[in-house]
Amino acid sequence: MEINTSADYLEVLRQALEPSVKQAEVEIGDDGVPKLFCVNTSPFDESSDITYMIWPETDENEDTLPMMNIVIELFGSIDASRSDDVRAFLNEMNLYVTIGGFSYIRETGSVMSSHAFYFDPAMTLGDITAAAAKSLGEMEADIAAAGALTAKIISGEMTGAEAIAAFSGNGGDKG
Amino acid sequence: MARKKKTEENGEWEKSLLGSIITLFDDNAQLTAEEIEGKPVIVIEPMEENESFPEDVTVSVERLGGSSQVSLMAAVFTGLPEDRAADILRLLPYINEYVVFGHFDLLRDEGALFFSYSFIMNGTWPMESFLRVFTQTFDEVTFTAADRREMLLPLIRGETTADKMIEDDNF
Question: Which CATH number fits domain A6-168: 1.10.287.110, 2.60.40.10, 3.30.1460.70, 3.30.230.10?
Answer without folding.
Answer: 3.30.1460.70
